[in-house]
């Protein structure tokens, strides 16, 4: 299983380390793509990892699976050639799929596949199972430290300053689709939840900036005909405060399932 990684931020670096240490049997890291190639080569040298830094257009030929750890704005550029070649892509910028639904059409036509890992959430298997029946409502309340939300387009557009708040502040109430537009680097989890359940226009969110917490916290409530789900996860932030450390590990878990002799969970 030949794997390429696009993006060498906190998640990309964690994946490079794990894959280079043969965390997954029969998997080979064949390439890395980054915007600043010289910086990427320096980073890889510092990590003592020998892998080539290649061009984006080369990945469809080089790899069986491409892992996207890049800004949502370039998701189409990454995913389209991979899917056109009938290959698999693991997408972390899940919110970008809302702007580019044609990627799912390409995958359906060519036999390619878009894989959305659990990421910073929990219970997506249960939500997907409930969606086979009837889900009445899905709500998520997200609380993040202020530095994990700084610079979000929603805050910039509405001139909301959260640097000096001394109490939890409700920033946003709305749908997963709206959240993905206003908080593209923060709320991919909400879109993943929406895809697992009842869609981005029926999945509702609250987003809070909380100066008193140190972990990215998500509480999900699902009311369905087969079960009521109430789930909370508190993620330790990575070097990038917008992303939890568990995100990279969830990608590894998804990759491990692809060729595993025993697969646990749907």
Describe this structure in words.
- Helix content is 34%, strand content 24%.
- With 266 residues, the chain is an alpha/beta fold.
- A 5-stranded parallel β-sheet has the order 2-1-3-4-5, with helices on both faces. It has a 5-stranded mixed β-sheet with strand order 7-8-6-9-10.
- Strand 9 (216-224) and strand 10 form a beta hairpin.
- The two termini are 21 Å apart.
CATH superfamily caption of the largest domain: NAD(P)-binding Rossmann-like Domain
CATH class type of the largest domain = Alpha Beta
The CATH architecture category of the largest domain equals 3-Layer(aba) Sandwich
The N- to C-terminal Cα distance equals 21 Å
Helix proportion:
25-40%
What global shape is seen? globular
At CATH level 3, the topology of the largest domain is Rossmann fold
Query: How big is the Rg?
Result: 18 Å
Strand tally is: 10
Class computed from helices, strands and strand pairing: alpha/beta
Q: What is the domain tally?
A: 2
Strand order of the largest sheet: 2-1-3-4-5
The portion of residues forming beta strands comes to: 15-25%
What summary fits the major beta sheet? 5 strands, parallel
